Amino acid sequence: MRNLYILLLLLLATSAYPQLPQGISYQGLARSSSGTMYPLDTIAVRITIVNPGSSNVYREVHHPDTDALSIYSLVIGQGVPETGPGLVPFDQINWSSQNKDVRVEIDFNNGSNYSHTTQTSLLTVPYALHSKTAESVPTYTVKNNLTELKAMAGTLNGQIVFVKGHTNPGDGGGGYFMWKTNDIFKTSMSGIFSQDNNGTIIQAVISGLANDSGRWVRQYEGYINAAYFGAFGTWGNYTTALKNAIDFAKSIVFTGGDGSDNLSHFQSNTIYIPNGNYIVDKITLLDGVSIIGESMENTNIYPSNTSGTYLVDMEIGRVRTNVSNLNFIGSYSGFTSPKGVFYLKGIQKTGGNAVEGYGDGGLWNCTFKNIQIRSFEGTGIYLGGGTTAYNTPDQFVNFENVRVSRGHLTNNSYALFMEGQNGQYTYTNCSFYGGGGTTFAKGKLVYLKGYSPGGGETWDPAVVTFLNCTFSNADYGAYLEYAESISFDNCAFSNLGYGVYLNGANKPNKAVNVLNSRFDNAAGYGSYTPPSGYVKDNGACVFTDNSVVNVTGNYVTAGSFCATCNFVAAGTNNIGVGISGNTFSSNSLNKTSGVQKSVSNAFGSLSCKRGTLFFLNTSTTNIDNISSTVGAGEILTFVVTGIGNVKFNRIAGNIYFPGTSTTLTVNTGEVVQFRRSDLSGVTKYELVSLVKNNP
What we know:
Number of helices: 4
Distance between the termini: 86 Å
């Protein structure tokens, strides 16, 4: 017995009318679990129609030939039928009693030694087959829209009605509906699918009285089309329609009842929005429900002129979702919205269904892909993790090909604002714009900020990577205010006052890496002259204060830098800047300020933190120890300044140099280097070189 791998390529009705041959076309790929293909061969295939969870209904055997690609074809219902307990002839199958599964078994030797392969729900049943067992409905009824459907109650479980459109024939919201009498569709039985949602579940209302004997249930495959609920993309306000679609999608996945067989009636938890123009008051993202548009260029979402700060928010509790292929536009018909777009703030779930543990709130395991945001005056994306409680972080989130343009050039909005406990984020091929051409935005494009709830705690963005991203046309490309493990890799910074700005005034930014990126007019706007009030003087590609940053492998170009602008500049509290391997279109752009830190002997010790290059003030007492956070093998360089000298002692602390003398004297103007070592787990700073004034 060999395990089999069957690929269902096509499963559709071959008969739409009773006078045509009865059957269902089936096509599969004959390939064993080990990958062996069976081209140009004859095999034996046994098909069984099954009532899920109960009995076999019908069974037959086929002996199809495979083609050169090992694909075989057959028609279910036209094989050699088998007999046995519970089995009936194909034309006596009661298709309306419940949904059916199809089981496929195969013997590659064309015998009867079958291996069970797969059992799949038969989601589409040919009407000609279904109607044979719905004797009181010899032909299906056709209605123009859902209003007409609501005025008709079904007479038999499994009855089929075709509706031409949701509101008008051909509007994209039509389809087949089946009358279902299961308890989950009845209000009297507290059915989870009893509520009419004007899209997939329709309750009949006869002479003003609601009928509770069943519901008209839409039959569909694949995603849940927003048009099913009346969202057609023709400049209407579709807030209610989209809400109904999203609520329905969540109920499929997260609601039990009636044997928890929701998926036997419905499928998919993804809302599909076709190309068009949709005006909405607000969209709320729900846990487990994904939203995809047809394209990021033509699936256009516009804000209505209603109150509210943001267009898209999220429900309370943990939210796992995927959003893609949408174009959010904030300005139309002479109206520009003051709103922002995404407001994704974690709020802890409370009550009987709350987990009340870490992660019981916030954005988790999500992807936002192929999204444009433009012409909104508010913040494009706000991510608030842990700003209401420590256990509501946003984490494990990917943004891919997301483009955000600030719609207001002078207010305090941002393209992206990450506040609080946001972790394990990746931005890939994303763009953040303040304007275009020679139009610039005041303030910050991307803002990463720690959140302080009080009591000395601070929750900060951490482990965030910007890969192949663009920051352009604003005072600050990326502004960090207490963040950790942040990387900018292979990014483009252009037309900026500051490319990356690290403000550690309250708490230091740590482990920030600016790598392999391009800075083009990204210090004081380079050769551009912004309007009055914008950053021009003292701009820098990278500025740091009370922060630890590594700036490596970058390329810098500009028509010019202002006299006070720099490639890298450090504030008065420089605790660590690493600079290496950077290249410049002109040597005049290789300007730094404040990078080389001044240190002094304090009670026999030098506190170097993460720095590697220092001015060392002269002292009258010996230096016994060096305190630093550099790694083993890294070198610290000291240039002695002042009047007199300094003396290093190799006996009392962690400093080592060869020879018999216990002290090493370094005079003003001389340079000494020590390398950190950790031989046998003992930290030492070993003398590497000493450059004397008069060798």
